[in-house]
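Reopening: structure tokens for the S-adenosylmethionine complex, inputs below.
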Amino acid sequence: MLRESEQQELDLAGAASNRVIIPSPKRDARRTRERRHLPWETNYAAFSPNFAEAAVRQLCLPGRVKVFDPFVGAGTTLEAAASVGVEAYGIELNPYSALLARCRVSTNAQMKVVTDIFRSATAPLKRTRASKSTTSLRTPSNVVESLVGAVAARANCQASDLLGHLCLRPDGDLDSEIVALVAALHVLKKQAAVHYRSNPAWLIQGPSPDRIEDDESPAENLETAFRTQVQLMIEDLHLRAKGSAARPIAVYPGPFQTAPVQSRQISRFLTSPPYLNRLDYVNPTLPELHALGWQQGARLDDLRARMMGTTKMRRKLGAGRLSSTTATKLLEAISEHPTKASGTYYLKFFRQYFEDMADFLGWMRSRSTPTCRGIVVLQDSFYKEIKVPIAQIISEFAEAVDFTVEVLHEEKRTRHMGTLSPHQRAHAPEKALTEFTFLLSRTR
Ligand SMILES: C[S@@+](CC[C@H](N)C(=O)[O-])C[C@H]1O[C@@H](n2cnc3c(N)ncnc32)[C@H](O)[C@@H]1O
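Re-run output (same inputs, fresh job):
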């Protein structure tokens, strides 16, 4: 870790040199389609890898500072940091997303080890099926159960602690075990024919209405499908590992406030918190979470409630003044809006999001160095016809905790969650949203 004075010298050198042009955070649809068989490509809200690499280069000199991502998602920041040769660490509240992000930097996974793990875990199931025991049918849930047991034994932990245990192992360690588990879950989900519509909060069963997976036979034998899946994943992981300076990468499962970082420790960050668009970050991974023992009920409800941007009302909201006057005025406008639930549910929903944003920035202030800089991607939104000017709002919240905000890139989005809803279209037919890439810099 650099001393503060060394960091300041670097900052000055960086400012004097030409800035890297930051590309769009939006992923290229063709690339996503081509790579849809990779489980880390299924995250709807992920950064484009080009963007994440340019942002890491903009923020860090390789080998000098670490980059932190408090909302890891599918781990694009971590992957980009690894390929640029920068140390990175991050935290993610959805436990399956955290495992997926950890899987994405598992460059040490070996095909033979992965397939041996799968074979040894599923062999007993095959034997008992041959003996026609009624309890021994090889269902997706007992394949996962056997695999979890086998991986937990190899990792030397209890099955109930497995997710956290795997995420916390440094990259390079238990990589084959992580790939085995993620590949099996991905294949079983595909075989269960669970599909997403454009709105990723909706999961539906049956053949894909978007005909996206027509080329994949759901009847494919599990072993064959697993081997193909692992091969694709390992090729991708090894391809990226080639030529890049391997760097330690760590992923913590949990809410950002529990990240094991001391005060004045974070000097660089790159992240994208949930937008104010009511997207559910639990639903798209429900099959995997179920398979890993997260049954519908209090535990999943609690996970949903803790998400930033959640539609669930979590706690009594603060009565105090928000540090953004724009957010305060917006809440007044929402509370006076004549439509049903504006002054009740929606007012609380928006207030909760703004409180979360203020908490996040305040937490960053307490953990960051005085010369900390970070890149944050956010999108503005609408409540009915009322625009939510996110650039202004984040600037005011950030200034209150000693960060300045500069817009590095902005881009109009004509297709977004709002355009999918007929109600939303009725309120503001011309709604185009802007996605912003902000640079946040500590002022003192
Ligand atoms: C926009 S996505 C991040 C996508 C990421 N940049 C990528 O490239 O994959 C936001 C993520 O924040 C996570 N999240 C929501 N609330 C959180 C919290 N309180 N602490 C940590 N992570 C949280 C969600 O589960 C989701 O994966």
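The pocket of S-adenosylmethionine is lined by residues 43, 45-47, 71, 73-74, 76, 91-94, 97, 255-256, 272, 274, 281, 306-308 (CB under 6 Å). The two ends are 20 Å apart (CA to CA). Marking as resolved unless the reporter disagrees.
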